[in-house]
Amino acid sequence: MEKQVRFDSEAGTAGGALETPVPRSLSWKDFVQVAKPGILFSNLITTFGGFWIASRWDINWLLMVWTLLGTMLVMASGCVLNNYLDRDMDVKMARTRNRALPTGAMTPNLVLGYGIFLGVVGVSVLGILVNPLSALLGLLGLFVYVWVYTAWLKRTSVWSTTIGAISGAVPPVIGYAAVANQLDMGALILFLILFLWQPPHFWALGIRRLEDYRTAGYPLLPVVKGVHPTKISMMRYVVPLVPVSILLYTYNYVGVFYLVASTVLGLAWVFMCARGFGARDEIKWSKGVFLFSINYLTLLFVIMVIDTAGR
Q1: Minimal CA–CA distance to 149: which of 209, 204, 81?
Q2: What is the pLDDT at residue 9?
Q3: pLDDT band at 37, cuts 50/70/90?
Q4: Are 190 and 176 in contact (CB under 8 A)?
Q5: Average pLDDT over residues 142-150
Q6: Which residues contact 111 (CB under 8 A, 6 or more apart)?
Q7: Which residues are paired to 308 by β-bridges?
Q8: pLDDT band at 292 (very low <50, low <70, confident <90, very high)
Q9: Secondary structure in 3-state letters for the chain
Q10: What is the pLDDT at residue 201?
Q11: What's the topology of domain 28-306?
């Protein structure tokens, strides 16, 4: 029998009523937080990695600045519009009910206008100061994240996480295309690494916050199918991630140090996910997997940059 998943104190009390969000006034920090700076930072690391891989140490520093700025603004637009579309659901979740919209610090129209403004400026920066391909990729990622993932699948299907991973895999490709101005094997490998990384990363959070997502009514995989099938699905992504990450070495984008490090990191994540099938404390296990997934991605791209092969 599947172990009972218990909701930890940080997320709230399982089945308990949530407190009403406390009204507060608007501050400049709300404009930063509504753009989800943590997500922006982690994705900019991958954008930088893609740019560096394509440059192979021959760096156009000004181009890199415009690429990172444009990509950051496009991603910020997606995060802000995500807050706008999810405002009715965020008020139901302990993790999100104190955001700017649920508390009334920001009005829906302000958030909508802010998100559109960021998107227009970001795509313009990419299209004018980088190249049209990067701008097109930014638009594609924004469309999938806002309309396909947030507005549609997130509320209707367990496939939302997988389809949403398409948008999350775009940032390193934008960085790569900014230099290469084409989509080749390097761009594909970077896309696949991020695509395979995202579902197990997010499902670990979903297991940890299971009751929060259930209360809000999100049809997340662990909510609809259960924790054990979700663990099986996580393995379907972390296992192929190991050989896919090695492809960067196979195609001579990186050196032996990356090969060894990516293999060790990947196998460590596989082992951690596999341990979940015997975990007695699934909240503790899922928290560990979630935190490791963040460190995995950061370390992978830092090592990728350090060990990028020259021309």
Answers
A1: 81
A2: 32
A3: very high
A4: yes
A5: 97
A6: 34, 80, 81, 83, 84, 87, 100, 101
A7: 254
A8: very high
A9: CCCCCCCCCCCCCCCCCCCCCCCCCCCHHHHHHCCCHHHHHHHHHHHHHHHHHHHCCCCCHHHHHHHHHHHHHHHHHHHHHHHHHCHHHHCCCCCCCCCHHHHCCCCHHHHHHHHHHHHHHHHHHHHHHHCHHHHHHHHHHHHHHHHHHHHHHHHHCCCHHHHHHHHHCHHHHHHHHHHHCCCCHHHHHHHHHHHHHHHHHHHHHHHHCHHHHHHHCCCCHHHHCCHHHHHHHHHHHHHHHHHHHHHHHHCCCECHHHHHHHHHHHHHHHHHHHHHHHCCCHHHHHHHHHHHHHHHHHHHHHHHHHCECCC
A10: 98
A11: Tetracycline Repressor; domain 2 (1.10.357)
Residue 119 has pLDDT above 90, yes or no: yes
Strand partners, 254: 308
Residue identified by tokens 């396909």 is 148
Burial of 251 (0-12, 13-18, 19+ CB in 10 A): middle
CB atoms under 10 Å from CB of 306, counted, come to: 13
Task: Give the pTM.
Answer: 0.90
- Dihedrals phi, psi of 308, to nearest 5 degrees: -65, 130
d(CA 231, CA 210): 13
Q: How many CA atoms lie within 13 A of 234 on its CB side?
A: 31
Distance CA 68, CA 166 (A): 19
CB contact at 8 A, 63 and 70: no
Alpha carbons 117 and 77: distance in angstroms, whole number: 8
If 0-12 CB within 10 Å is exposed, 13-18 middle and 19+ buried, where does residue 282 land? buried
Say whether pLDDT at 113 is over 60: yes
